Structures are given as C-alpha cells and as structure tokens.
User: Which sequence fits this backbone?
DNA sequence: TCAATTTATATGCACTTGCATAGAAACCAA
DNA sequence: TTGGTTTCTATGCAAGTGCATATAAATTGA
C-alpha cells in the first residue's frame, strides 16, 4: 500500500480527536440542561426543515448519516415521546412520512439556544469567521463524491 | 445567547458529517478485512507507543478520549483476546499498567496497511498535502485549551 | 497520625447500537 | 403477466455504551 504521509496522518488524528472533544463537551451541556442527545436534535431539525415538516426515514438517514436500523429505533423512541409521528406515504406503502409534532418543534426551539451557545463556546469562538470558512471548504472536499 | 454565525454553523455541520462519513467508510474497510474496530486500533497503537509498550488506563484515556468506564471494559475484552495484559503499577496499587502483547503488536501491524490505505482513500486523497496541513492547523485550534 | 478528600479503576443495570435477517411493497425484464 | 430483484422499514439477539456508584489506595491538611 501507499503509506499516508505524515501530514495526512496528523490531520486525520486531529479530526478524530477534535470531533470527539467538541461533541463530548456539547453533549455535556445539553445533558446538564436536561435535554436529549444531539442525535435527537439532528432528527428534529431535519424533519422540521422538510416540506411540511415531513421527511421519509430514508431522507433523514441520508441527511444525518445514521444507520437505517438505528434510525428506525430512534424514531420509535421519539414517537413514544410524542416528538414525531409516522404517517403513511401516499402512493408507496413501503415508505412512510415522519412528521414533526408541535411538541417536537417546541423541544427543538428550546434546545437551540443551549446548543447554539455551546457551538460558539467550544467551536466557533476557537476559530473565528475566516477560519470557519476555511474549515468548511476543506471539509467539503471530504464530503465530495460521497461514493467510492 | 449569541447565535452562531452562518459560517460557524456550516463548518460545524460539516465537521460532524465529514467525520461520520469517513469513519463509517474506514470502519467498513476494517470490518470487511476481518479486523476489530478503530477503538481497538487506537488503544493498541497508544499502548505500543508508550514506554516499554506500556501505559496506564488513565494515560490511554487521555490519549484517545474515551470514557473511563468504556475503556475499562474495552481493556477487559482486549485482554480476553490476548492483545494486552494488565500488570501492577510499581509503587501505586491504585493504578495499573496495560502492556501490549506480541499478539497485540502483530494485530496492530496487520491492521495498519488496511487502515492506512483507507485513510488515504477516504481522507488523504481528497485533500492533498497542503490542505491536510491547513486542516491540521485549524483543528489544532479546537484542541487548544482543552479545558473550559 | 488519621479523618477527609482525591485519584484510579471496576461494575450493576438500563439504554443504545450493530449484525443479520425478515417482511412487505414496488420495480423490472422477458 | 409474473418471477426475480431491488427498495424500504422493522426486529431478535448480541455487543457496546452511559449513568451512577462502588472499592480501594494515595494524598492532604489539621
């Protein structure tokens, strides 16, 4: 094989560490404010943004990059909490639509101030505007060509 | 609160997505080659690098950013597989030393070609040398002042 | 010197995730 | 049409993780 270069190895290690550290800190803030985890927020936000506050599980999965079976059960839990509901997908009985409830919207809106503040504190403030833009551009390259 | 700027939110979202995507792909490569997960590799590599191929659980924890209780049980599993062994820490009976075994070294060495190739394929090749350096520098800012 | 505090590791129990596979509907090709 | 394939979601069971707390040793400070 082709050994990754030192620069690549270093960047990779830091990506893992930085992500772990920042996520752990943000999760801790959410938890201490009595909120559910980031995964729940991710789903709420995506569904909320969907047309009519609806999205199929497949679409959510694609947006948040969860495993199909994990999302299926996460939706079970969220539905049990009244945050979303599953409704039939017109014209295709395999699919379904996940619809955010009023309760779901309310939770997302209550979480955002805490989440947003944590993003600033543990992420944005350490970078600054210009660097955030640079980081976005670099990460985009990784997301590019999601195949292969 | 202070809303994060659009640039910061975008960068944050991409960090999460990019990390998830690349990790998922690399994990898939390791798995399909019959290897254990990245967490196992992380521990093997850290311990191997420690003085005499030894490190305390605390030190491993700090290096890889796992939770204490998760690491404790991961070490149980790795020890059961004969990859590491726990030995007493001289002069402090609270601590212990985790020592990599020959089997552990061998596994790490067999994993690296697969892991390294995957790092290149899903990460390094999409960036290039210069950009890898830029990314490292940006991520370092996030890792800086690990407190707060 | 010894009680209180801190540090290091482990563990019971509940919850979450991963793996393999199921089941059902839609699509496709002859 | 219809049999084979693909797509979408769910699920039993095993493995991993999170939370709270336990245990034991070391350190601190009065």
Assistant:
């Amino acid at each position: 094989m082709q050994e990754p270069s030192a620069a690549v190895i270093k960047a990779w290690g830091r990506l893992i560490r930085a992500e772990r550290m920042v996520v752990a800190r943000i999760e801790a803030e959410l938890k201490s404010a009595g909120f559910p985890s980031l995964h729940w927020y991710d789903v709420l936000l995506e569904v909320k943004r969907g047309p009519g506050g609806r999205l199929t599980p497949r679409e959510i999965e694609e947006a948040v990059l969860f495993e199909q079976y994990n999302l299926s059960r996460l939706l079970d839990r969220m539905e049990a909490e009244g945050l979303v509901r599953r409704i039939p997908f017109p014209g295709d009985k395999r699919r379904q639509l996940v619809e955010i409830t009023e309760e779901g919207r309310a939770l997302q809106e209550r979480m955002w101030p805490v989440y947003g503040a944590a993003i600033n504190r543990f992420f944005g403030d350490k970078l600054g505007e210009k660097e955030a833009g640079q980081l976005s551009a670099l990460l985009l390259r990784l997301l590019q060509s999601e195949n292969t």
In short: Strands of chain B lie at 54-55, 84-88, 96-100. Chain B has a mean pLDDT of 96.
